[in-house]
Amino acid sequence: MKRKEVVSLAAERACDALGFKPGKSRIHRTVKKRMAIAMAMNPYCDQYEIGEVLHRHRSCIYHYLKNHDNYMEHWDGYKEMYHIAQIAVTDVLADFDVKEKIALLEGQITKLVLARDEIKKQFEGATS
């Protein structure tokens, strides 16, 4: 699965868990659900990815992030929505995120081994 598909799947699962349909609604309860989902996705996705799946501009996602702690403390029901969304998102994105990081590290290791071998070759040529 490609990253975009996994991000969409995570958003879909979180939306289903909260009974939310992405759109432009400004109904207070809908806004809370959207914010909770966005913040649950935040550790795994950038603001553009989150905005795309929730049909919002990345600046809205930044606003949610900036105010998340305040929402957790003061908005009735937000904390519970966030935790439900967090479970749904983590189930999908945590494994994918780890696999992406491993692939990145393996690529870096390969480059380092090649660089090491090249330096060894140059050193051996200079000392013989």
**Which class of secondary structure composition applies to the elements?**
mainly alpha
Uncertain ranges = none
Per DSSP E runs of 2 or more residues, the count of β-strands stands at 0
At the first level of CATH, what is the class?
A: Mainly Alpha
Element-level helix/strand string: HHHHH
Major beta-sheet overview: none
- Report, as a whole number of angstroms, the end-to-end distance: 50 Å
Query: What's the helical proportion of residues?
Result: over 70%
Named at the architecture level, the CATH assignment is: Orthogonal Bundle
Globally, the shape reads elongated
Question: What is the residue-mean pLDDT, rounded to a whole number?
Answer: 93
Count of alpha/pi helices: 5
Report the C-alpha radius of gyration, rounded: 21 Å
CATH topology: Chromosomal Replication Initiator Protein Dnaa, Chain: A
Beta-strand percentage range:
under 5%
Could you name the key traits of this structure?
128 residues, mainly alpha, Chromosomal Replication Initiator Protein Dnaa, Chain: A, 5 helices, 82% helix
Q: Would you mind describing this structure in some detail?
A:
- With 128 residues, this protein is an all-alpha fold.
- The chain has a single domain, classed as Chromosomal Replication Initiator Protein Dnaa, Chain: A (Orthogonal Bundle).
- Helix content is 82%, strand content 0%.
- It is built from 5 helices and no strands.
Produce a short descriptive summary.
The protein has five helices and no strands. The protein has 128 residues and is an all-alpha fold.
Provide the fold topology.
Elements: H1 3-18, H2 28-41, H3 47-54, H4 58-74, H5 78-127
Helix pairs in contact: 1-2, 1-3, 1-5, 2-4, 2-5, 3-4
